[in-house]
User: Which sequence fits this backbone?
C-alpha cells in the first residue's frame, strides 16, 4: 500500500520560544471563534467516547466532566498552543498498524523542529533511526495518529489527534537538514491535559546527535554493535569499518557522548 503523500505545505519562520509557556492559557475556554468545539455538537454525539468509556465515567461520576473537557477540544491551533508546540524539543507520536497493534514513538529535535504549517496543520521531520520505519509504515496503513507534547520544566501537556501523511515536497524537507522526509499532520482534535503528574526536569541539554545546519550528525554507536554485523545498510556498514569495525555489547557506552 503506498504511503499517502502531501501536496506540499506552507512553511513559517523560526519558532518563537520566548514566552511560549508564560503566555499559556489553561485551555478550559469556549472555542466558538474557531467554529465551535469538536465534541458534543448539535447531535449530542461524542467524538471521543464510546460505550466502554461511558460505563467507566458513569461508574466514577465523571460523565459531565468528561463532556465538558471534550467540548473544549478544537481543530485550529490557538496562538498559545502554536508557541508551545514550536518551542518543544520533543513529541510522542502514537500510531496503529494494519492489524490494530498500537505503538508510540519519541521524536526529538531542536526547539522549533515541529512547525505549524496551517491553522490546523503541523509538520514533523523524520531523522535517521533504526530502520524499522514503525511510525511511517503504520501511517501508510492507518493515517490516524495521536501526538503528545510535554513541558517537563513547567508541567504542561497538549494533545493533538489527527491524520498524517508523508510530505515529499523538496522545499519542505529542505527546511530540516538531515531529515529524510517530513510527516504532515492535519489536526482533528486539539486539547489540553492536566500536568500535575509530570515529573519536573529542565531538559536544558539537547541531544548531541541532532543534525547540524549542514545535515551532518555523529554516527550512532549502537550501529557498531556486533549484534548488527551483516544487517546494516551498505553506507552504515562502510562507516563502521572506518571507525574500527564492530564492537561487543560490553564495550557499548551508550549514546550520551558520541565521542566515547
Assistant:
Amino acid at each position: 500500500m503506498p504511503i499517502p503523500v502531501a501536496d506540499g505545505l506552507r512553511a513559517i519562520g523560526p519558532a518563537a520560544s520566548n514566552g511560549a509557556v508564560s503566555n499559556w492559557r489553561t485551555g478550559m475556554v469556549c472555542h466558538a471563534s474557531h467554529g465551535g468545539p469538536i465534541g458534543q455538537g448539535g447531535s449530542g454525539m461524542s467524538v471521543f467516547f464510546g460505550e466502554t468509556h461511558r460505563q467507566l465515567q458513569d461508574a466514577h461520576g465523571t460523565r459531565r466532566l468528561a463532556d465538558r473537557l471534550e467540548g473544549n477540544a478544537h481543530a485550529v491551533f490557538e496562538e498559545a498552543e502554536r508557541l508551545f508546540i514550536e518551542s518543544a524539543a520533543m513529541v510522542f507520536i502514537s500510531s496503529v498498524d494494519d492489524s490494530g497493534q498500537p505503538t508510540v514513538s519519541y521524536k526529538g529535535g531542536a526547539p522549533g523542529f515541529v512547525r505549524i504549517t496551517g491553522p490546523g496543520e503541523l509538520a514533523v521531520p523524520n531523522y535517521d533511526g533504526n530502520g524499522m520505519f514503525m511510525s511511517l509504515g503504520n501511517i501508510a496503513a492507518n493515517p490516524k495518529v495521536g501526538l503528545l507534547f510535554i513541558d517537563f520544566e513547567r508541567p504542561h501537556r497538549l494533545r493533538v489527534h489527527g491524520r498524517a501523511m508523508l510530505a515529499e515536497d523538496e522545499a519542505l524537507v529542505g527546511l530540516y537538514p538531515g531529515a529524510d522526509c517530513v510527516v504532515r499532520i492535519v489536526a482533528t482534535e486539539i486539547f489540553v491535559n492536566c500536568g500535575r503528574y509530570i515529573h519536573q526536569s529542565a531538559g536544558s541539554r539537547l541531544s548531541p546527535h541532532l543534525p547540524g545546519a549542514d545535515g551532518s550528525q555523529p554516527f550512532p554507536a549502537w550501529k557498531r554493535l556486533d549484534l548488527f554485523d551483516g544487517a546494516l545498510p551498505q553506507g552504515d556498514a562502510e562507516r563502521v569499518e572506518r571507525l574500527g569495525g564492530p564492537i561487543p555489547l560490553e564495550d557499548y557506552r551508550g549514546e550520551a557522548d558520541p565521542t566515547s
About this structure: The first strand starts at residue 5 and ends at 6. Strands lie at 5-6, 90-96, 102-108, 115-118, 121-127, 144-151, 156-167, 179-193. The mean pLDDT is 83.
